[in-house]
Amino acid sequence: MNKSLLTFSIIAILLFTSFKSNAQEQTNSKDLYSKIDNYLTAGSKNGFSGAIAVVKNGNIIINKGYGFANKDRKTINNPNTIFDIGSNTKQFTAIAILKLVELGKLKVTDSLHSYFTKLPIDKRNITIHQLLTHSSGFPESIGSEYSSFEKLSGISQKDFFERLFTSSLLSVPGEKYSYSNVGYSILGRIIEVASKQSYEAFLSKYLFSKAGMTKTGYLLPSWNTEQFAYGYNRNILKTVPTVALYQEVGSVNWHLKGNGGINSNQNDMLLWHKALKTNKILSEKLSKKLATPYVPMNSKSTHSYGYGWIVNTSISKALRLSHSGSNGAYWHTLIWYPEKDIFITYATNANSEKLENVAYVVAKIILEENYTPKPIENNIYSFIMQYLQKNPINKSKELISLLRENYADEFTNPRSLNTVGNLLIRYNENINWAIELFKINVQLYPNDGNLWDSLGDGYKANNLKKEAINSYQKAIELGYKDSQKKLLELNKN
């Protein structure tokens, strides 16, 4: 065979092989799209509401929304819909810290006393590394304001850090893992001190703009309010978008800043992944620190905490980085398999326990060829809410029968009735039904002090003082100490 013919043959074989490989990749991508889309489309008929995006080998497999961003207006979720990403904010904080390392502004071995004055002796030598890895010993949160969006403007920076630094540590710094939101709030403040910029301004300049992200942040983006997803706690009660709350008070409280509450959409999160993957924001050397399994999450776990990522190598024998965040109504998950070049970003604005693992189900669809996921079912909370919206209180016995028939595995503890009742009180909706749910619970579980406390809350919300006092007294008799303060307040009035 002459040299020209041989060369032509080799080129032809290579082209054919490449074409065949590309064709196979396209077929696989279409199959994956169908499997994921069918799973979530079916789920949307049972209350699933959110968005998913998957990238594999640099190709977008799916980027689609499901269910409603706003049920009242029938606005459909889509890749531009804005969700609260919760604790995935911590990833931005961790990378901002490493960016400051790259800029020569700080070291992860720096101690708190380099950035804060008048620190108690037990906190002076806590390091940035310990804050990043949740091994500082700080508690998860401080104060009741943390759990209430309505109180996000309720504490000043000075008061927050004074309260935090005078609080007790849960463990010796560096001793063990203990998840701490306030630890990342401290990191947020360190970013401000080291950069001489606000936390969000630094993220916007050195992270988001570098990645081309324009719809990620707290207050700085030019938000389009039509793109916000409203939150639906357990898919039943509507909450306003968190950005609207930030805008109302004109700031973000330190209970959230640095550790949670940033908003974003799926398109921006894909840009974020691309920027991380290509070292557009951080050098390769510093990026590796994100995926280093520094601190085991417990003695038996295969999970460790890196910098803003949970690191795991036991799944499919490949490195997996993941993290989730939630404020009750929203849930957000990021999953990244760097070695397999797979990235998943998932958000829901109607969170319940059944929806928290959706991203991991999608990962399993991708990784296991013959895997068939269980359908997403209507959650028990939605079922209860739908029933009480259509039926009078005198049909409560029928509700219990239906729950035992349709949710036998879940209706084995008081949680579902108590959760719905508390949500009704929180949003001042149908208080009489809330009281009925609490009454059923104390009949089923008469020795649970927490349930008697909830019944007291129901009576109090309905201005039934005598009944509330009796319920709180019963809760205290059963050892539920949180009722003592409520009882004292009622007796004063």
Give me some keywords for this one.
493 residues, globular, eight-stranded antiparallel β-sheet, 2 domains, Beta-lactamase, alpha+beta, two-stranded antiparallel ribbon, Serine Threonine Protein Phosphatase 5, Tetratricopeptide repeat, 12% strand
Point out poorly predicted stretches.
none
At the fold tier of CATH, the topology name of the largest domain is: Beta-lactamase
Number of distinct beta strands: 14
What gross morphology would you assign? globular
**CATH top level class name of the largest domain:** Alpha Beta
The proportion of residues forming helix, as a percent range, comes to 40-55%
Mean pLDDT: 92
Radius of gyration: 25 Å
Please indicate the percent range of residues in DSSP E strands (runs of 2 or more): 5-15%
CATH level-4 homologous superfamily of the largest domain:
DD-peptidase/beta-lactamase superfamily
The number of helical segments is 17
Structural class by helix and strand composition: alpha+beta
Distance separating the two termini: 104 Å
| Most strands sheet | 8 strands, antiparallel
Number of domains: 2
For the largest sheet, list the strands in their spatial order: 2-1-14-13-12-11-10-9
The name of the CATH architecture of the largest domain is 3-Layer(aba) Sandwich
